[in-house]
Structures are given as structure tokens and as C-alpha cells.
Amino acid sequence: MMWVIGGVAAVWVAVAVALSVRAAAQLRRANRLIATLRSLGAVLAAAPVRPVEVGRDGAIRLEPRLAAELGLDGSGVARLSDLSQGECGIEAEDLAALADDVAASALSGGRFERTVRLAGSRRVMDVRGAPAPSPAEPGTLLLWLGDATSAESEKLALGARLRQTEAALESLTHLIESAPFPMWYRAADLRLGLVNSAYVAAVEGRDAADVIQRGAELIDSPDDDSPRAAAKAALEHRHSFTRSQPATIGGERRMMKVVDVPLPTGAVAGFAIDIQDLEDARFELGRHIESQRELADRLTAGVAQFEADRTLSFFNQPFAIMARIEPEWLNDAPEFDRVLERMRESNRLPETRDFPLWKGERRAWFTATEEALEEEWILANGDHIRVVGQPLPDGGLRLILEDRTEQVRLASARDTLLRVRTATFDNLFEAISVFAADGRLYLWNNRFGSVWDLDESWLAEHPRVDELVPAMARRLVNPTAAAQLRELIRAATTERRQGGGRINMADGRNFDFAAVPLPDGNALLTMIDVTDSARIESALRERATALEQADRVKTDFVANMSYELRTPLTSIGGFAEMLAGGYAGGLTPAAADYVHAILEAVARLSRLIDDVLDLTQGDRHGVALERDRIDLGGLCRMVAEGLQSGATARQLSFKTIIQPSAGAVIGDSRRLREVFEHVLGNAITYTDEGGSVTFEAAGNDHEAIVTIVDNGPGIAPEDQKRVFDRFTRIGGTHGEAALGLGLPLTRQFIEAHGGGVELVSAPGQGTAVTLTIPRGRR
């Protein structure tokens, strides 16, 4: 029995142990479940969302914390529509939309999302709904509500930024499309992906799609320098790749600046700017700089240019000479201060007490704001140098040195000359005034003011000539004559014409005046007192009139006497010819000689009378000429033969030269024969025995030339102008010689033919007379 009781007890103990072990295990599982529930509760409490259970009948269950957030009393909330009752409840409009979503989800079992606004604030809650998991009843929905205020704000901000970005992208796209220069985009494979209209026009494509499909590149170059290679280089170096390459655009070769810009996506964007005009301008600028330097090399002024670092970059030869510095040293690009120090060593700088301070002041020229700084350097040896410093836009400096030593000396001499001129003007007998181009009185002497009785202080105001005319008119006999002075001054200044005249003063004086244009555009008016000379001129004019009348009376008397002498001379000649002809019987040889002498004297006297008549008639009425064709050579031979006997009698060497070019002339043969006889007869008459006389006739296409040359005593220079005057007697080696009427008639007859007479003579060497006779026409 005890065994049985012990066995039962053992069984109960075993059962009790087993139950205890099982209870302990369940207790542990319960504790773990409680811990898990607490953890889930803590997670749920810490979660940013709150659950709401919505039953099939529309009843809801929500956490007190959510009710508190919505400003609701949790005990009074039973349905979904109650969520809008609190102070911070859901807006009615959003709650109605949420109810529709809940109803739709309950029917379809689908999920939904919505944002709802809370009344009285800007808070926004995100609602996400889905069927509740088991063991919830079918048709039950589980809503999760979370505060999405910040997320919604960020979403709105992102939306605004997205819209701004889209607008900026659209504007940028429009800008790129409207850009006047080619732009493109290359994808990661470096093929063209986008091009703008300027690119399409540059490669002469139909449209952007055509250009991208053909892969038309803007720049045609070798593979090493191709557009793809440049884009690849930009990607590899991760910065913009810029280069200048030529391209053919619109059939014209243009220089382009091409830029490839790597993008973070591995693509490359690029653009090309036409810099041909810039290159042309750079080329022209280079040429301009070169021409300026060439011009500077030809200037007499010294020019030196320093860079921004104050090193010498250019100088011309005059600068090296003025600075007295070797060009080889200047070619090493010395610094500005060293150049000044070297010039000081050569005594080419002005003396100064504090040279470092003086040098620092000149160094400040590099940063001066003035366009140019100018000063005068007076050197120890008296040289005067004008220095101009020009700050350059790049921070450099250009120095220009001009040696004005000679100009200063000339200015001093000019001042001296001006003083001398003033003193000279004031002491001249003439009244002198100078008028400027605008008609104002510029200079005058004391004589001018005294002649017109003008106040010196008023003249110092430089009045215009229009103002001077009324003052001048008061001093004239004829006041309107003052306007003539004004017109002459105007013509001299504006029209550069010279003029003059005479005016009569009211006090009886007479003045000759002249207005002369000066090289500087001014006009000089001179007035000289000719009162005495006018009186003398008037007397001389009266005497000349009397002499002319006496000359006319003498000419008329000579002409009348010539006609009166011709009648008895004709009778004498006639009776002498009758005696020579034997009408009175035979003559003895002596009587025949006497008659012959009478006939020669009658012939000679007849020629003299004819000459006198020709001379007097020619002076009064002109010479009447015959117009015949004359063989000049034959006429000259006939004259020479007639005078041969006289030359032989004086034992002269007489040569007659008739050139073939003598030809013929149209004229009066009698007058020309008389001309040749007069000149040749004088040559034979006044040439010493044993001398020589040459008679030559020649000519050209337009005129005949007859020359008579002798080696007689010649004619003194003071007498050569008088040999063509009537009844002139000149001195010679044989005493006075009367040339008679021959040479005056010679000039008169030759000039009547349109020719000329030229006489060349020297005492002791002979005389040459050249007669020029135009060929003439009938």
C-alpha cells in the first residue's frame, strides 16, 4: 500500500514537476510576448504615424494621442465623420474625400493614399489606408495617419523649384536655340545629340535632325585635332577645352574660337564664336603698333615705352641719342629706375637736390590718372627738353622726349625780332596796319594812328574795319572813299587779292595805299604820303603833255618839209638826168662827173626823205605792208651784191651765207630789202678797214632768221638801248657816230611783219644783229 502510495506520489511529483516546467516555459513565453508587446507599443508610440481602425459599419477606433493631436475627445468619437469636430480636426472637404477613399477601399480591398489638412493650422497629415490584417473582420480598414507638414512643405518647395527649373530650362533652351553662334551637346559616346539653329546654318543642314543623323561637324580637321578628340580631352582633364580653329561658314573661311565644356553626366557641351573680326582687328592692331613703332623710329622726338613691370620694351634712335645711352644697353630691357640713373650719369636729367624723391615722383607716372603728364627739363648744359609721360591702359608708360633747345632759342630770337619790328614799325615813314582774317585790327604803328587821328587806347581794343571806316571817313575829302579801304582789306583777307589806290585827305595831303594779303591769312595795309610827289607828278604830266604836243608839231613839220622838199628835189633830179642824157648838148668829162654826183646826191636825199616819211607815218598810222611771197635767199643775195662794192672799197672780208633752210616768207620785199640794206650798210660803214662782215640767212619751220655780224668797234652797253631811237648819236672809237634812221626803221618794219630785232655787242669785239621774220600767210 505504501508502495502504491509512494508510486502515486512519485507520479504526482513527476506530473507536478512536468507541469511546473511547462508552466515555467509558458511563463517565459508570456514574458517574452509581453516584452514584445511592450516593445511594439513603444515602437508604435514612437512611430510618426498613428493607426485608426475603421469597421465595416463605419465605426472607428483611434489612439488617445491621435485624438489629442486632432483636438478631439476620444470618448465621443465613434465614426469617421467625427474626425472634423475638434479644434484641429480634419477639414470637412478633405474628410469627405477621405470617406470616399475608405468606402472604395472597403469594396475593392485596395490601398490608397491621401493628404488632409487640419483646420485652424497649416498642418497636413498623410493618410495611407489598406484592409486590416486578420484577425480583424473582413471589410475592416486600417488607416495610418502621419504628420506630413514638413514633407508637404518640402514637396511644395520642390514643386516650385521644379517649375522654376523647367522654366529656366525652357528659357535656356530658347536662348541656346536663338544664340547667334553655333552650340551643341554631345552624349557620353561623344556623338552629336543636340544642335541649335546657328549650328545647322553653319554646316548648311536642313534641320537639327539632319545634322545629328549625318554627324556633320563644324570643324574639319585631322583626327588628332578633331572635335571629338577635343571633347574627349575636355572630359579627361575635367575642365573647359578652348582652341582657335578655322571653319568654312557660308562659303567663307572664318576663324572660330571653339569651347568644349565637360558635364557631370559624362556628356560634353560646346559652342563656337566667330573671332575672324577679332583676328582681323588683332592683325590690324599689330600692324598699327608696328607702323607706330616704324613712325616713332622716323620721328625726331625720342620715344620709349615701358611695360607694367617697368621694364623697357621699345625705344627709338632719337631717344638713345637724347638720353646718351648705348642702344645695346637699352636692348637688354632695363628697368625704369635704371634708365633714369643712366641718364643722370650722362647729365641728361635736370639737377635736383633729392634724386631718389624726384625719381619716385616720376615712377608714380605709371599709375597716374591723367591722360598725359608734361614737364620741362632744363639741363646743366642749357639744353631744353620737353617730356611727356603717357600712362598706358595696361599699366605701362610711354615717354616722349622733344629737344626744344632750338625752339627756345628761336622763341627768344622771335621776341627780339618782335621788339625790333615794333620799333621799326613805329619809326617808319609809312602808315602801316595789319588786319586779321576776321577784319579786326591786329597791328599798327604810330604813324597810322596819327594819320587818321585815332585814340591809341581805342586801337588797343582791336576794332573791326567796319568800326574804323566811320572814323576814317571824317578825315577824307570824299568820306565815301573810306568804304574802298574796307573792301580792299576784305578782298585781301578772304579772296587773297592785292589792291591799291589813292585817297585825298581833308587837310590837303595825298596818300597812296595798298592792301596786300600775307601768308598767315592776314592783310597788310600800307599808306605813304605822296603829297609832294603828286605835285611833282602833276607838273611832269603837264610837261609831258607839252612835249607830246611839241613832238607832234615836230613830226608834222618834218612830214610837211619832206613833202615840200620832194618837189624841188624831183626837179633837180629831172634836170640832172636831162643834162646826163645830152639834152643840153655834150658834156665834158668833168661836167659829166659833176652831173653824176648830183644824181647820186639826189638819190640819197630821196631815200632819206622816204625814210623820214616812213618813220613819221609809221608812228602815227602804222606801216602799210605788201603781202607777197619772197625768196629770202634771193633777196639777201641781191642786197649783198649791191653793197659788195662798199665792202671792197674798205678792204673788208665780206661773206654771204645762204642756208637752204632760209626758204621763203610772206611780206613786203621793199621794206625787207631796206631793212637788210640799213643793217648791213651800218656794219660795213662802222667796221674798220681790214675787218670782216658776215651776212647769213637761215630759218626753221616757223620763222626765218637773218644775222649780220661784224668785228667792228662795238657798242657800249649804255648805248645799246638807244641805237633804235631816231636821230641818235652814240660814242665810239672814232668819236660820235650818227646811226641815222636805219635802225629805227629796221625795228619798225620787222615788228610790222610780226618779228623781232636782237642786238648783241661788246666794245672792241664787234656787233651781231639778229632779225627774226615769221613765215607768215597771204
Automatic annotation (TrEMBL):
Pfam families listed in its UniProt record: HATPase_c (PF02518), HisKA (PF00512), PAS_7 (PF12860)
Enzymatic reactions: ATP + protein L-histidine = ADP + protein N-phospho-L-histidine
EC numbers, comma separated: 2.7.13.3
Coiled coil: none
EC category name: transferase
Top-level taxonomic group: Bacteria
Keywords annotated in UniProt: Kinase, Phosphoprotein, Transferase, Two-component regulatory system
Domain Histidine kinase: 560-777
Cross-referenced InterPro entries: HATPase_C_sf (IPR036890), HATPase_dom (IPR003594), His_kinase_dom (IPR005467), HisK_dim/P_dom (IPR003661), HisK_dim/P_sf (IPR036097), PAS-like_dom_sf (IPR035965), Sensor_HK_Regulatory (IPR050736), Sig_transdc_His_kin-like_C (IPR004358)
PROSITE patterns (alphabetical): HIS_KIN
Gene Ontology MF, one: phosphorelay sensor kinase activity
Keyword Transferase (UniProt): yes
Protein name, as recorded: histidine kinase
Origin species: Sphingomonas ginkgonis
Lineage: Bacteria, Pseudomonadati, Pseudomonadota, Alphaproteobacteria, Sphingomonadales
